[in-house]
Write a structure and sequence with these properties.
TPR-like_helical_dom_sf; 3 domains; 70% helix; mainly alpha; 13 helices; Serine Threonine Protein Phosphatase 5, Tetratricopeptide repeat; three-stranded antiparallel sheet; single chain; Zinc finger MYND domain-containing protein 12 isoform X2
C-alpha cells in the first residue's frame, strides 16, 4: 500500500478528500495528486479503486505542458479526454462488479471516481452522469442507507427529465434502480411498476431475450417469490435461465467448432471467452446461483429445471476458465440427471464434462 503523509497546504488553497470531499489532511505519495481527510477514507479508496488507477491519475491532475502550437494543444486535450473516458468506463465496471458481488462499501469510491470523471468530461447536468448516480444509489441500498439512495435516485431522475436525448438503456437502468428502492421499502406495487418499465426500455434497447434485459425479469421474479406467487416467479426464473443458457451455449458452441477445425483467424492460441466484462460475469454468477438456490429449496423439486441451471453455470465457469467450478456444477448436474432425466438429456452434460476435463489437462501441461 502506498505511504501517506500529512499535507503542507499552501495558504489559500483548499484540498478535498477523494471520498467525502471534506478538507484533506493527507496525500498519496505515489501519485501526489490524490488527497484524503484521514486514514479511513484513504484505506477505503485504495482497496476499492485507487490501487488500480493511481499512476493513471498523474497526467489528469497535473498542469498541462506548454504547447508550441494550437494543433498540439488540441491534440493534448483530446488525449486527456480519451484517458478520462477510459477511466470512466473502468471505474464504472469495477464498481458494478463489486455491487454484483455484494461488496457495497468497496463499490462507493469506484462509483465516485466514475461520477467525477463524467462531470469533468460531460459537465454537471449531462445525462452521462446518470449511470454513476445509479451505481451510488444501488451501493447505498446495499448498505441500508435508503435516504441516501433516494437522494442519488432523485438526482438521476431529475437529470433524465431535463434531457432530450436520454437512451432507452439509461431509462432501463433508472427504472431498475427505482424498482430496487421500492423493493427495499417493501412497496411491491411501485416496484413492479418500475421493473415493468425497466423491461420495456431494455427490450427496446437490446431485445426481449438479451442478457441485459434479463436483470429486470430476475428482479420482478424476486417480487413474485416474496409475495408467494410461485407460478409467476417460476415462469420468470425459467425465462432468465433460458436467456443465459442460450447466450452462453452460443459462445460455447462457437468455441467447440473452432477447436474442432483447429483454426484461429488471429493466428493465436484459442482463449475461452464469455463475451462479457467482469461486471457482467459477476452479474451472471449472482443471478444464476440465486435461481439455483431457489430451485433447490423449492418444495416442488423440479429436477429438470435444477439440472438446466447447473449446466448453465458450468458453461459460464468453463468460459471464464474456472475449470474446478465448472466441473463441480457439471458433476452435480450429471448426478441429478442420472436420477431423474433421460439418457439423451444426460449426453450434453457428459460431453460438457469431457470438454472441461480436457481443458484442465491442457492448462496443466
Amino acid at each position: 500500500m502506498n505511504v501517506i503523509y500529512p499535507l503542507a497546504v499552501p495558504k489559500g488553497r483548499r484540498l478535498c478528500c477523494e471520498v467525502c470531499e471534506a478538507p484533506a489532511e493527507r496525500m498519496c505519495m505515489d501519485c501526489t495528486v490524490t488527497y484524503y481527510c484521514g486514514p479511513v477514507h484513504q484505506k477505503a479508496d485504495w482497496g476499492s479503486i485507487h490501487e488500480k488507477i493511481c499512476p493513471l491519475l498523474i497526467p489528469l491532475r497535473t498542469t498541462m505542458p506548454f504547447y508550441n502550437s494550437e494543433e498540439e494543444r488540441q491534440h493534448g486535450l483530446q488525449q486527456l479526454q480519451k484517458r478520462q473516458k477510459h477511466l470512466i468506463e473502468f471505474c464504472y465496471t469495477v464498481a458494478q462488479k463489486y455491487l454484483f458481488e455484494g461488496r457495497y462499501e468497496e463499490a462507493v469510491p469506484a462509483a465516485l471516481h466514475s461520477l467525477r470523471f463524467r462531470m469533468n468530461v460531460y459537465g454537471l447536468n449531462s445525462v452521462e452522469l446518470v449511470p454513476a448516480y445509479l451505481l451510488l444509489a444501488e451501493a447505498s441500498l446495499g448498505l441500508g442507507r435508503i435516504v441516501q439512495a433516494e437522494e442519488y435516485l432523485s438526482q438521476a431522475r431529475w437529470t433524465v427529465l431535463k434531457s432530450t436525448d436520454c437512451s432507452n438503456a439509461t431509462h432501463s437502468l433508472l427504472h431498475r434502480n427505482l424498482g430496487l428502492l421500492y423493493m427495499a421499502k417493501e412497496n411491491f406495487e411501485e416496484a413492479r411498476y418500475h421493473l415493468a418499465n425497466d423491461i420495456y426500455f431494455a427490450s427496446c434497447a437490446f431485445g426481449t431475450d438479451d442478457i441485459r434485459t434479463s436483470g429486470g425479469y430476475f428482479h420482478l421474479a424476486n417480487i413474485f417469490y416474496a409475495l408467494s406467487k410461485m407460478g409467476l416467479a417460476d415462469t420468470l426464473y425459467t425465462k432468465v435461465s433460458e436467456i443465459w443458457f442460450t447466450y452462453l451455449n452460443d459462445h460455447y458452441q462457437v468455441l467447440l467448432q473452432a477447436r474442432s477445425q483447429q483454426t484461429d483467424l488471429l493466428g493465436k492460441q484459442f482463449v475461452n471467452d464469455t463475451g462479457l466484462d467482469e461486471a457482467q460475469e459477476a452479474e451472471a454468477i449472482q443471478i444464476l446461483t440465486s435461481i439455483l438456490n431457489i430451485r433447490e429449496s423449492s418444495s416442488s423439486k423440479a429436477p429438470q429445471k435444477t439440472v438446466f441451471i447447473m449446466k448453465t453455470l458450468s458453461m459460464l465457469y468453463y468460459l471464464m476458465l474456472e475449470c474446478s467450478m465448472a466441473k463441480e456444477y457439471a458433476k452435480r448436474a450429471l448426478s441429478l440427471a442420472k436420477e431423474h432425466l433421460s439418457v439423451q438429456e444426460q449426453r450434453f452434460i457428459q460431453a460438457l464434462l469431457k470438454v472441461i476435463s480436457t481443458e484442465e489437462e491442457r492448462s496443466t501441461k
